[in-house]
Amino acid sequence: MPSATLLGQALISGVLAGGMYGLLALGLSLSWGLLRLVNLSHFALAFLAAYLTYELGTTYHVAPWWSVLLIVPSMFVIGLAQHWIFVRFKVNELGSLLITFSFAVMLEVGIQLYWTADYRRFETHYATWSLKAGPFYIPVLELILCLVAGVLAWGTWLWLRKTYVGKALRASAEDADIAAAYGVDHRKLAYLLSGVGAAYAGVAGTFIALIATLAPAQIWAWLGVVFAVVIIGRLGNPLGALAAGMLIGASESIAMAILSPAWAPVVSFSVLIAILLWDPEWS
Amino acid sequence: MLLEIRNLHVGYGDAPAVWDVSIDVDAGEIVSVIGPNGAGKTTLINAIAGMLRARQGQLRFDGADMTRVRPHGFCERGIALVPEGRRLFTKMTVEENLELGCYLPRPRAARAQSLERVYELFPILRQKRAQAAGELSGGQQQMVAIGRALMAQPRIVLFDEPSLGLAPTIVDDMFDIIVRVRDGGAAVLLVEQNVIKALSVADRAYVLEQGRIVATGLPDELMKQSHIREAYLGV
């Protein structure tokens, strides 16, 4: 059994790492829960944003807090374009899996053609900064990531709860015909939401560039665990997505500390299965 | 004439469900369409609400052609639906359901007054306003569905089987409410299987059977027709 300090450190690192799961899950959860579109290319978009951050940072020496201002709106536009394809071909839930899988593969190939399959690392002098709280270390970048994820999740939650657009989106998710009978133009709102989801992938990508080592095949690395997070957090629930991300991050980290690192991939789906056994109607 | 329907044909895919239907509703009127299960009543009312597209014929509201208006444009012109089975947004609160009724800019500007009016009409909803609509009883859910329609400040309210699945005492209340909706200034088009009730509140009525209008007239006249007495009243 590891020491209390080690467990505490594992918990802190896990929760902070889970912020990334939550941030990636946020956009996925919105389009799946409210539009019934499962966007597998969400991860590829995040990595495209990460590579762009890397490129702007290393080639043009643009700091990531400036490049994010360019990348996020670009991703929003890509989200709109993607949604145009969904509308054009009347894509349903299952169809969205197939078509976004092909988007993801195309993006992966495109990234590989331009940036090659070599590992890329965006070196910054602040990547290793950390705060010390008692015996524990808190990495600053991941703390900022969690704060940003928290602000986005909370803001999105308020947007869905408190604004007419948010209420209309939730209503349409349940009964689109009746929402339309009360004047909701679901098509317009769906475009907006697809754009917002892709923009969130852009935010996640900026942090991926700073925290992780980039390689084209990495776009698939988080697929399984983030899917589990989306379902555990309940579809279309932004705060749930973030909380579930942190829960899974912490569980993985504790499992790694107590058992062995090889156990980490088992954790997310074990938690998911346990929840579904407890309440089959979950999500 | 507020609502003018001429020779309307509506169907699902290749199967027509409503043939050659002509109906008028004037401002301040309650008009009932009665008929058995499967006669096409819901199809007809959904076409008037914009949820189904007519394949042929005229649908005019306040003089304007509605056949090319997109589904979300019907409410804007003053048509509000109380659908069969209520179709509330069950996971949203009672108040959020009502707010969806005033989604469009014009009714949204009057949100506070409209909410007050709905809560005066249905005091129980004020108590339950933060509760998920799906948790309410059938009668209360019907109140939310009616309230949602009133929030839209409609010029006509379309009621689709409002008494279906409700306890008899609540059914009487529902018909009282329908009269009050009309007295509040909106015309009413009511589609019902409960023939006696539907005729008792109506100014005029139509009988729809197998997708066609087979009789029309004042409720008292229809009540006297032997076909209707046999088919619907069992006497």
Automatic annotation (TrEMBL), chain A:
The chain crosses the membrane at residues 6-26, 33-53, 65-87, 94-116, 136-160, 189-213, 219-242, 254-278. It is a multi-pass membrane protein. Keywords: Amino-acid transport, Cell membrane, Membrane, Transmembrane, Transmembrane helix, Transport. The keyword Transmembrane applies. It is found in: Cell membrane. InterPro entries: ABC_transp_permease, BCAA_transport_permease. Belongs to the binding-protein-dependent transport system permease family. LivHM subfamily. PANTHER family: AMINO ACID ABC TRANSPORTER PERMEASE PROTEIN (PTHR11795:SF445), BRANCHED-CHAIN AMINO ACID TRANSPORT SYSTEM PERMEASE PROTEIN LIVH (PTHR11795). This is Branched-chain amino acid ABC transporter permease. It comes from Reyranella aquatilis. The lineage of its organism: Bacteria, Pseudomonadati, Pseudomonadota, Alphaproteobacteria, Hyphomicrobiales.
TrEMBL record, chain B:
Keywords: Amino-acid transport, ATP-binding, Nucleotide-binding, Transport. The keyword ATP-binding applies. The keyword Transport applies. It comes from the Bacteria. SMART domains: AAA. One of its GO terms (molecular function) is ATP binding. Residues 3-235 form the ABC transporter domain. InterPro entries: AAA+_ATPase, ABC_transporter-like_ATP-bd, ABC_transporter-like_CS, BCAA_Transport_ATP-bd_LivF, P-loop_NTPase. CDD domains: ABC_TM1139_LivF_branched. Belongs to the ABC transporter superfamily. This is ABC transporter ATP-binding protein. The lineage of its organism: Bacteria, Pseudomonadati, Pseudomonadota, Alphaproteobacteria, Hyphomicrobiales.
